[in-house]
Amino acid sequence: MKKIFLILIVAVTLIFYNCEEGLEPQLHGTLSPVTFPSNEQEYELYMLELYKPFLGSWGYQEPGTSWTNSFFSPERGHIVMLDLPSDIFTIFSQWGGFWEGQSTCNFDYMLNEDRYQSHFDKVRFVTRATKIIGDIEKAQIRQEVKSHLLGEARLARGWIMYFLLTYYGPVPVIIDYEKVGNEEAENDLTRPSRETFVGYIADDLRFAADNLEVEPDEYGRFNKGLALTLLMRLYMNEKNFVNAEAAGREIMSLGYSLVDNYHSLFREATEQNSETIWAVSCSEDDETKNFNPIAYYCYPDDYAGEKVTKGGWGDGVFMVTWDFYDSFDPADERRLFVTEYTRIPGAVVAGQDAIRSRTSNPPLRGPVCIKYLDEGNTTSAFRGNDIIIARYADVMLMMAEAINNNNGGPTSEAITLVDSVRSRAGIGPLPPADVASQQAFNDAILRERGWELYLEGVRKTDLIRHGKWPSALAAVPGKNTSAPELCPIPTYAINNSNGKLEQNPGY
Asked: Is-contact 308 300, C-beta < 8 A?
């Protein structure tokens, strides 16, 4: 049952917002807040506008503006922003531009991004969320309906701010409804302290967790587990391990469990299961809806997939390093890669090998990732496999890390959490050396997270939290080992701030 994004299409057609140079949302068209929304169903449509940054489509377009990437778009989405610039993935220079910049960890290109390319412009979507939240708070509707709608709306606002914090650090936002439209507030682009900004996010996610169901009636809607997982990630990355552990224990009480087969998590037939907390609900029908093109970005263009016979795009964008592949236990069921393949007819030219491998001519930059299989009923690149964003194995590994840091070393509970994830993968428990000290266990957890969560958009934040950025990049030739942890604030925003918006270090 995938209703949520059909409802969202209706919501988008009803609500027309645009933003000026500052942070203020402007209402256009014939609808007025005086007449719309006016009942519970219309307030629900009003709130669903806030799902737009979390679509899995190419992006979204605001009336009268240019195209904008969502946080899970194929281009400039979470995998490009947080996995590609890491020690796991090879350099992809074939297309230049942001692809090369991200894969080499040279982020200077972002200085010249315009407002519609840059995720930074979503500071204005935060203002939109604040406007919608304030309007719902004033709505004359049943309290239980109001609380639920506010839970979804505040999760959306908190999640947007979480991504902005991850990419840029604290940024200027408006979270006070009374300041929306206030000229002085709109023009003040002073960055808040990190403590203040993290507090905004935590407050929103905590409210969402307290007001959302574990299992919404409609698949794809935000839920309690997602709110708590995001809150746990926030606290982990802030090294607030006490609060992270508390959030983790709440999640562990909600009834999630590991599935038996790791690969089944990423297959369309088994995408709804006991482990997946939240995923982008995808359809293979056409590319105007949420779809999953990840396999195409993994396959080289001379590779034949299960259903698609013409290969992927380019020479395999999301291709892991051979060192990463070799780091797996050979028995590990999470090692979902193809190390050699017969090239599709017509791809072989004189002097080139028909079978591509690590040593062929031309050689593979790395193994082909088949985590998201090319399967379904069509021959297009747009698959129906839901894109996993939060799942219980991630929570278990974060929980083990939090316990380890809170107790000065590994406990039996923490070790069991990691060993359970390993057991599902078909490999044995951690060796004694990996649990001999707090540092050894943290290092083991970081390795485990790489094997478990590659291509799921968490690697860069993991490396930073563990103090391995940028030292881990040194293992991949061509990566920028002096890369700043944060992306640059785009020049357009600096220029529009009247000297109040400070640039991040390193740019």
From this structure: no
Tell me the HSE value of 334 on the side-chain side, using a 13 A CA sphere.
Answer: 24
Query: What's the rounded Cα separation, in Å, for the pair 114 and 112?
Result: 6
Largest CA distance in the chain: 74
Higher pLDDT, 312 or 23: 312
Rounded Cα gap, residues 384 and 269, in angstroms: 9
Q: Is 218 in contact with 3 (CB distance < 8 Å)?
A: yes
In a domain, 377, yes or no: no
The domain that holds 12 is classified in CATH as: 1.25.40.890
pLDDT value at position 444? 98
Write the pLDDT tens digit of every residue in 377-426. 666 667 889 999 999 999 999 999 999 999 999 999 999 999 999 999 99
Torsion sign, CA atoms 25, 27, 33, 34: positive
CB atoms within 10 A of CB 157: 28
Cα–Cα dist 411/21, whole Å: 52
What range does the domain containing 116 cover? 4-59+74-103+110-222+487-495
Q: Is residue 93 part of a domain?
A: yes
pLDDT, tens only, 125-183: 999 999 999 999 999 999 999 999 999 999 999 999 999 999 999 999 999 999 999 98
Residue 283 in any domain: the answer is no
Q: Is the pLDDT of residue 31 over 90?
A: no
Cα gap 505→507, rounded to integer Å: 6
The CA distances from residue 313 to 203, 216, 349, 364, 365, in Å, are 41, 36, 19, 15, 15
Mean of pLDDT values over 194-217 = 98
User: What total number of domains does the chain contain?
Assistant: 1
- By the 8 A CB rule, do 163 and 234 touch? no
What is the predicted pLDDT for the residue at 305? 73
pLDDT of residue 60: 85
Question: What is the residue type of 216?
Answer: P
CA 279 – CA 390 distance, rounded (Å): 7
Looking at this protein, which amino acid is placed at residue 351?
Answer: G
* Spatial distance between the Cα atoms of 129 and 24, rounded to a whole number of angstroms: 11
Average pLDDT, the chain: 90
| CB proximity list for 70: less than 8 A, separation 6 or greater | 52, 53, 54, 55, 56, 57, 59, 60, 77
**Distance (Å, rounded) from C-alpha 497 to C-alpha 194?**
19
CB proximity list for 96: less than 8 A, separation 6 or greater: none
pLDDT band with cut points at 50, 70 and 90 for residue 283: confident
CB 297 within 8 A of CB 318: yes
Residues 6+ apart with CB under 8 A from 231: 202, 205, 206, 209, 247
Is 27 part of any domain? yes
